[in-house]
Amino acid sequence: GCAPAGGGSVPVLFCFSVFARPASVPHGAGYELLIQKFLSLYGDQIDMHRKFVVQLFAEEWSQYIDLPKGFLVNERCKLRLVPLQIQITTLGNLTPSSTVFFCCDMQERFRPAIKYFGDIISVGQRLLQGARLLGIPVIVTEQYPKGLGSTVQEIDLTGAKLVLPKTKFSMVLPEVEAALAEIPGVRSIVLFGVETHVCIQQTALELIGRGLEVHIVADATSSRSMMDRMFALERLARTGIIVTTSEAILLQLVADKEHPKFKEIQNLIKASAPESGLLSKV
């Protein structure tokens, strides 16, 4: 039988595929928190491009039933996550309230090595100006800044939610996960910086593993080698990540000529970087 619990935490057995892992959740935890727990336990095994149903083991039926509407964990129980056979198309709709910008390792020491670095700096700067105009949170990382220098001076980090040093290639650090958890309703990450085939690729794969939709800005993302860049973008696009451009991103975010910030966003777009040939190498 199930023993009722008071406050504090409640033990729950989380089952997925052939796995079953005991964990605990706060008393009164609902659907969203349970999904997060499944992701934290099984994120690397879950294909986020499928639909899921959460089921509860019901003693009275001696089998799993679909999680009742409004279910809250009040007592010890057993849950399982069942992937359905339907593939979800990634539509890639963007709204400012559910979007966060990730600016990855745009540092001084990379300037001589990264192809078209001057162009991706100016596009990155425009994206950050757009984020400030639209009230979109910005998270910035710097790869080993002690040795590789800080973010280039041309990029204005005023108002960034986080600027973090890192040694890990992926931007998905504990502090970044904590910051994302604080922003209600985050669905989409707009990602740009360097290098496409290392930090950008590893960040993107970790983010979709956590159920977020990722948009990589092709005209603000580069590598030392164009071949590395091209194959990384191809691989990521096949994984369901959206490879897009800065203009497409900014206009998707305003969505309407009548948007109060449209004129300012339009002016940012008009100040485009010169044609660099970078996009012909996607």
Strand % is 25-35%
Determine and state the CATH class of the largest domain: Alpha Beta
* Fraction of residues in helix: 25-40%
Identify the strand order in the major beta sheet. 8-7-6-9-10-11
Write the layout of secondary structure elements.
Layout: E1 9-16, E2 19-26, H1 31-42, E3 50-58, E4 63-66, E5 77-87, E6 99-104, H2 117-134, E7 138-143, H3 145-148, E8 162-166, H4 174-182, E9 188-194, H5 196-209, E10 213-222, H6 226-238, E11 242-244, H7 246-254, H8 262-270
Parallel strand pairs: 1-5, 6-7, 6-9, 7-8, 9-10, 10-11
Antiparallel strand pairs: 1-2, 3-4, 3-5
Protein architecture, described:
By secondary structure, this protein is of the alpha/beta class. It has 2 domains: 75 residues, Ubiquitin-like (UB roll) (Roll); 174 residues, Isochorismatase-like (Rossmann fold, 3-Layer(aba) Sandwich). Helix content is 31%, strand content 27%. The protein has 8 helices and 11 strands. It has a 6-stranded parallel beta sheet, with helices on both faces. The protein has a 5-stranded mixed beta sheet with strand order 2-1-5-3-4, covered by helices on one side. Helix 2 links the parallel strand 6 and strand 7. Helix 2 runs parallel beside helix 7, helix 5 packs parallel to helix 6 and helix 7 packs antiparallel against helix 8. It is elongated. The termini are far apart. The N terminus is likely disordered.
